[in-house]
Design goal:
The protein is an all-beta fold and 248 residues long. The chain is built from no helices and 17 strands. A hairpin with a 5-residue loop joins strand 10 and strand 11.
Length: 248
């Protein structure tokens, strides 16, 4: 069958011709994620999908069939306090005497009169999110600092030359940012010749204190970068995206 180009300056086939039957690639749903390679501190996991319909006549090529998530289980691995008094140990340190304790059983809550030890450094892989500044949020008036009054919301600095809060105050809780899984990629902006698609995720927990800042919430990638092609099965050396309705 003879093939033709679009009418000049348009994407409309000439009279007596019709667009080739473009068949885009189709793929299955993603499989379940594999187990994360680490239980804490950051790991990776993968998932796959398969081709269910092969592309034809310049249809969109198949997208990636394997995807790796490099940001699973990014929460900090539990680490006990340092400089605990009297041979004690745990994730919480007494506000006055330096002894350390564990969390309440089954929780990550420190006992009254003690404070969770400060997160020194954590990462979010290639997204390069930074630790928080250690300062309390929602302080009364213009007050600021890493320590909050036990009875009101005014904030204070550590005692000079120390990392100890003044009497009658406590160090603000450390909460790392938590985000949802990535959403699905958007539809590609072009069937061929190169386009863009994006995906997003949401903040589930807003960081406070020295908690880990949130990573990027959207990303984009190139898609359908294959060259736009004409019809297949053209005769007489003809080519183009439109085939004659009758000849051949």
């Amino acid at each position: 069958t003879s093939c033709y180009g679009y009418m000049w300056g348009t994407t409309t086939c000439p009279p007596g011709t019709a667009p080739c039957n473009v068949v885009n690639c189709e793929v299955s749903e993603w499989s379940k994620w594999s187990s994360c390679s680490a239980k804490c501190g950051g790991g990776e996991r993968t998932r796959t999908r398969t081709v269910t319909v092969q592309p034809q006549n310049g249809g969109a090529k198949c997208p990636a069939l394997e995807e790796t998530d490099y940001h699973c289980n990014e929460h900090a691995c539990p680490s006990k306090c340092s400089d605990c008094a009297g041979g004690t140990s745990g994730n919480c340190q007494h506000d006055k005497d330096g002894t350390c304790f564990g969390y309440f059983p089954g929780t990550k809550v420190c006992p009254p009169g003690s404070t969770a030890c400060t997160v020194k450094k954590t990462t979010l892989g290639g997204l390069s999110a930074a630790p928080g500044d250690g300062m309390c949020s929602d302080c009364f008036g213009k007050s600021s600092g890493p320590c909050r009054h036990d009875k009101d919301t005014s904030c204070y600095d550590f005692m000079e030359g120390t990392t100890t809060c003044p009497p009658g105050t406590h160090q603000c809780a450390i909460v790392n940012c938590e985000v949802s899984e990535w959403g699905a990629w958007s539809k590609c902006s072009a069937n061929c010749g190169g386009g863009l698609q994006t995906r997003t995720r949401d903040v589930l927990t807003t960081p406070t204190g020295a908690g880990q800042a949130c990573p990027v919430l959207s990303e984009s990638q190139d898609c359908n970068t294959h060259k736009c092609e004409g019809c297949s099965g053209c005769v007489g050396g003809t080519s183009g995206p439109c085939q004659h309705d009758k000849d051949g």
